Amino acid sequence: MAETRAAVETAMNQFFEGQKKEKVERFKRLNPMAKKGQIVFAGSSLMEQFPINEMIQNYDVQLPYAIYNRGIGGYTTQEMLQELDVMVHDLQPKYVFINIGTNDLSAPDYNEAELIARYREILDEIEAHTVGVQIYMLAYYPMCTKKAMKVPYMKPVLQYRNNERVASANSAVRQLAKECGHVFLDLNAGLLDEDGDVKEEYSIEGMHMYANGYEQVLNALLPTLKELS
């Protein structure tokens, strides 16, 4: 039984790694069709699953730039570093909005200083490849602990990826943004319940969000998007 379980876990891991590689390949083929000098949203699944291009159709706003989403589910800061060409550089964006690092927080051997060091390297690489780019660093979204506790496979995750770790990482990312001259955006206020968790009605399994959660994020983000020129 243990061998069977291990084999299933190995197969699933191989499947998810294959999915990530396939997304990279899709972006490689899509990027030549994109306009240069636009907006790029980059990061992991919490960025990938942000349906901003569809949702913004419901708002009476005309943005001067196209938005390209280059989030890849499951990505860590190290993986983003390895694929910056595809996720950012190929597009030569004028503005980059980043949400990366939450998968780092989920690791048993997570180290905040190492996360920030890799994040700094990402910022440096983007600036080195795109002159004049403006970078916005999004705060990590808190967990919805109430929802996660109801989902069996999420309970072990809470040992590592919890709101105390998220809050500490957000403070560190905020400081990094200040040091590097970038903009830290905390878009979380409309998501939170009285305990500082993401509200249950927005949460899928405690970690990811439905569109009504992203609606709160977009409402907070719109003033920034409108100011882009």
In short:
With 229 residues, the chain is of the alpha/beta class. The chain is built from 10 helices and 5 strands.
Core attributes:
alpha/beta; five-stranded parallel β-sheet; 10 helices; 10% strand; globular
Could you please describe the fold and organization of this structure?
- The structure is a single chain.
- The chain has 229 residues and is of the alpha/beta class.
- Helix content is 47%, strand content 10%.
- It is built from ten helices and five strands, in the order αβααβααβααβααβα.
- The chain has helices spanning 2-30, 45-48, 52-55, 77-82, 84-87, 102-105, 112-129, 145-148, 163-180, 211-227, and strands at residues 39-43, 67-71, 95-99, 134-138, 183-185.
- Strands 2-1-3-4-5 form a five-stranded parallel beta sheet.
- It is globular and about 45 Å long.
Which sheet architecture does the biggest sheet show? 5 strands, parallel
Strands of the widest sheet, in order across it, are: 2-1-3-4-5
Distance between the termini: 60 Å
Task: Tell me the quaternary state.
Answer: single chain
**Mean of residue pLDDT?**
94
List low-confidence stretches: none
Structural class: alpha/beta
Rg, alpha carbons? 18 Å
Instruction: Please give the number of β-strands.
Output: 5
The percent of residues in helical segments reads: 40-55%
CA-based shape = globular
The SSE string, one letter per element, is HEHHEHHEHHEHHEH
Provide the β-strand percentage band: 5-15%
The helix tally amounts to 10
